[in-house]
Amino acid sequence: MTELGLAITPKEVITRFTGLSHAQLGRPLPADYRQRSTLELARRLEGVKPIEGVHAQLGQLTGPRCVCSNSRSMRLQLSLTSTGLWEHFRPHVFSAPEVGRSKPAPDVFLHAAKVFGVEPRKVLVIEDSAHGVSGAVEAGMRVIGFTGGGHTWPGHAEDLKRAGATQVVPRLSDVAAAVEEFRA
């Protein structure tokens, strides 16, 4: 975006666009923008690292699980494979734009519940974006907000709570305990 003359900081990108499938910039982008940004994103995702401790944390969580994202399937497979997480979730990796409307619409969450044959009210979502929290709440699901990723900002936890997260955890190590509280 900087190359296009858009004065926007990484922090501003995170706060304005996290959880959205595309940016609303108020002006048209060049015709080759999507192709160029897709190639650059793929290049960067090849080196992405998982949040420390995620594999151990997933080992503590029992029961069915999936990924519901606004990203496209290709991007999801690339990032989950790069982090070693693909095997923890496949084949239950759902792309919102490929199953319905993108978050904050509830479509991807409702799709996942249908695939698993579970009533939405029995689903617990761990979500790091306010748009995702809103979508899961609209689907009738319970939500734990997560602010332990690399894209957090001051006020992030409050944004997740305002969107409907019942609880917000700042560290990955807190997720299993929060899930157990919901189960109880």
TrEMBL record:
- Cross-referenced SUPFAM superfamilies, in alphabetical order? HAD-like
Q: Which domain of life is it from?
A: Bacteria
Keyword tags = Magnesium, Metal-binding
Is Transmembrane helix a UniProt keyword of this protein?
A: no
Gene3D superfamilies from the UniProt entry: HAD superfamily/HAD-like, Putative phosphatase, domain 2
What InterPro entries has UniProt attached to this entry? Beta-PGM-like (IPR051600), HAD-like_sf (IPR036412), HAD-SF_hydro_IA (IPR006439), HAD_2 (IPR041492), HAD_sf (IPR023214), PGP-like_dom2 (IPR023198)
Pfam families under this entry? HAD_2
MF annotations from Gene Ontology: catalytic activity; metal ion binding
Name what cofactor the protein needs: Mg(2+)
Regarding protein family, the annotation reads: Belongs to the HAD-like hydrolase superfamily. CbbY/CbbZ/Gph/YieH family.
| The protein's name | Phosphoglycolate phosphatase
Q: Which organism does this record belong to?
A: Stigmatella aurantiaca (strain DW4/3-1)
